[in-house]
Design a protein that fits this description.
The chain is an alpha+beta fold. The protein is built from twelve helices and eleven strands.
Length: 479
């Protein structure tokens, strides 16, 4: 990606956009809260209505029975209904006296409206009216309910009254309208609160997810410098942390890949330049085309072949396709044999070899790959250990593992650099001198070979002043 196109894409991706997820979340929360509020309103309103009517029926039944008992007593004192028929004030006084006993003020609100004398009808034993309902022009005639009036077991008349449901219509449902109005205000407040909640939550979540989407888009465009702000300790914050780790990993991998390509180009350029120079010298007649010069060319070609072979091995290891033929073998015998063959080579470099190899230690291994591993470790020691130096090798068993320690003398490596020693083409001193350490792939190959055997390679400072490599191989069962 060019430097010219990346800022343009960043500006395009950074433009504010409407969050679809935020809109969906807003709509869902709002709809759910409105539906719940509506159900609450309907259910509570119905409950108030039914409960209020039941309350009225119970209250009125008690009042009507008390009035019927009082009318029975009044008939007993008079022997007829003549007084009440001719004196409406006596009727009103009797009704009010029963409904509002002396010393108790008239009830307010609904009970006072229930206790209107005009809502009662009195008939004698023959069904003739004594006190009747006056004509009303504002509504239809009331449908009455009747109870008997008795005196000493004898029915002396009937009392009619308006039932509660009709009383509600008469009172224009004042109480229920007031309660439902209050309930509507509460429900409207809940809807408004849910609206604010849904809006705030959808804006907050939409903003964070939109930021993640834009940052992810930047990653797909190759901008690995994208980072998310880490706030809080919720799942989104942990997702932001994981995203940042991913971005850092991708950025590090890109830089590593760029260094890898640059280093490979450098490693290939050196032998190719030597080959080109010698061939041109032979073409120009400066150097003769003889056996010695052809041998020099062959050595440079061999160096190229080894470098390409190392790269191929590492590529196979990365792809999980490294060719390894595992079979039972004695790790101690393999190591001892290679050290015996290389003893003279090690001595020529001024290195004293000290070994303590215990065995047999049976593992599943590839004899050729293990020999390649020993060669890489020996090459690394000879390339980086100053003469006169010392190499100490110990092999033994620890738990269910075969443990090999490979220690050499100075110079050492800073502890901060130990974890980078198996990186490809990495050299502590940053040198590109082929004399001081070859291609820089040896330890990377050693780590790949050990991993192919199910083992592990770790580096630490050596008491001898140099490096200590610890190699652990899993032993075969029953070995």
């Amino acid at each position: 990606m060019s430097d010219e196109t990346l800022p343009t894409k960043r500006r395009r991706l950074a433009r504010p956009a409407l969050s679809v997820l935020g809109l969906k979340l807003f709509a869902i929360i709002l709809i759910v809260n409105v539906a719940i509020s509506g159900l609450v309103f309907v259910s509570v309103s119905r409950s108030i209505n039914d409960g209020f009517i039941d309350y009225l029926k119970t209250t009125q039944a008690e009042l009507v029975h008390n009035l019927a008992d009082a009318l029975g007593n009044e008939w007993g004192r008079q022997g007829n209904w003549q007084k009440l028929r001719t004196d409406p004030r006596a009727w009103r006084a009797l009704v009010r006296r029963q409904l509002w006993p002396e010393g108790h003020p008239p009830p307010v609100g609904i009970q006072r409206d229930l206790a209107k004398t005009r809502d009662f009808v009195l008939h004698d034993a023959d069904g003739l009216p004594v006190i009747g309902l006056p004509p009303r022009h504002d509504r239809q005639p009331a449908r009455l309910e009747w109870i008997p009036i008795r005196h000493e077991g004898r029915q002396v008349g009937t009392l009619g009254y308006v039932p509660p449901d009709q009383l509600l219509a008469q009172m224009d449902r004042l109480f229920l309208d007031q309660q439902q109005r209050n309930l509507a205000i509460i429900v409207a407040s809940l809807v408004l609160a849910s609206l604010l909640l849904a809006g705030g939550l959808s804006w907050w979540l939409g903003r964070r997810t939109r930021g993640m989407a834009l940052a992810t888009r930047r990653l797909t465009e190759g901008d690995y410098g994208a980072r998310l702000t880490e706030r809080g300790r919720d799942e989104l914050s942990r997702l932001s942390q994981d995203f940042n780790v991913l971005a850092e990993t991708l950025e590090a991998n890109r830089e590593s890949r760029q260094r890898w390509v640059s280093d490979i180009a450098h490693e290939l350029r050196t032998p190719l330049a030597v080959l080109r120079g010698e061939i041109e010298a032979m073409q120009d007649g400066i150097r003769p085309l003889d056996q010695d010069n052809l041998t020099s060319l062959s050595q440079e070609v061999g160096q190229l072949e080894r470098l390409v072979g190392d790269l191929r091995l590492l590529a196979q290891s990365d792809a999980g396709a490294l060719e390894v033929s595992l079979a039972p073998l004695d790790l101690a015998d393999s190591l001892k044999g290679r050290l015996e063959d290389a003893q003279g080579w090690i001595a020529e470099h001024g290195i004293t070899l000290e070994s303590d190899i215990q065995g047999p230690l049976m593992i599943r291994g590839d004899a050729q790959r293990l020999r390649q591993l020993w060669n890489n470790l020996i090459d690394n020691t000879l390339a980086y250990t100053s003469a006169p130096g010392q190499l100490r090798i110990r092999l033994g068993q620890k738990d269910r593992m075969a443990r090999l320690t490979w220690e050499d003398s100075a110079p050492g490596v800073p502890e901060s650099e130990l974890h980078r020693l198996t990186q490809r083409l990495y050299r502590v001193e940053g040198s590109r001198s082929r004399r001081s350490g070859g291609s820089g792939l040896g330890l990377s190959i050693a780590a790949a070979l050990i991993s192919a055997h199910g083992g592990e390679l770790t580096a630490s400072p050596s008491p001898l002043g140099g490096l200590c490599w610890t190699l652990d191989f899993p032993l075969m069962p029953n070995s």
